[in-house]
């Protein structure tokens, strides 16, 4: 008999419960004890012990031999790495980047943190290419440009200062900020605005607009639009802020695996295929082209 005298759970129910346990781990909930888990999930101690032991046996969890508490294990890291290296994250982002690039006629780019930089995971050219080389794998430093500022500005201020304090930053153009206090002022202004904007900080000939991708209250990357300053365009890139913000919400929903997210990014599509100028770039995280 299972919990509360009910009929035994089917294999699929057991698998679902094990998945629920894995999904319960967060930055705040880093480990579980058997009794603690049983109480939180409304199951008996023996069931909780079997689930935790089974997950630990396959490496999804790791058991501390002293405290007998369970935390995420090496199999989770390995599977996440496989997903990243085989382009899973890039393919997911592509579903949002393509309609965004089509709608704005700009280059749409998704980047994730990489030390004191953000790294381009996927990009789609909505018009003329922003660079003569692929953007995937390119690193954008924390001190230069909206693409990186769209992530770093929205970190917890203490976490951001711990990353940046005492660092020596490179200068890319005369507009690049390298002073720690000036950078902090820019970050604070960006948060107050709700978006990052740059012109000529990283590349003198380009400008960019970016917003954070926020997952469960924490920034996990940035979504940006980029354009060349030449030739001049009839519209301002900042006119596309609502579309960029909506795309960021759609991408966050996909990353959070929310039930109604699968079709949402496609709603902005008109059914037209990307023209030759609207080309997509995807790649494996951590691999520079």
Automatic annotation (TrEMBL):
Swiss-Prot/TrEMBL keywords: DNA-binding, Transcription, Transcription regulation
Biased amino acid composition, Polar residues: 277-289
Protein's name according to its UniProt entry: IclR family transcriptional regulator
Start and end residues of each IclR-ED domain: 75-257
Gene Ontology biological process terms in this record: negative regulation of DNA-templated transcription
Gene Ontology MF: a single term: DNA-binding transcription factor activity
Pfam families from the UniProt entry: HTH_IclR (PF09339), IclR_C (PF01614)
InterPro entries: GAF-like_dom_sf (IPR029016), HTH_MetabolicPath_Reg (IPR050707), Tscrpt_reg_IclR_C (IPR014757), Tscrpt_reg_IclR_N (IPR005471), WH-like_DNA-bd_sf (IPR036388), WH_DNA-bd_sf (IPR036390)
The keyword Cell cycle is assigned to this record: no
Record bears the keyword Coiled coil: no
Residue ranges constituting the HTH iclR-type domain according to the UniProt record: 12-74
Region feature Disordered, mapped onto this chain: 262-289
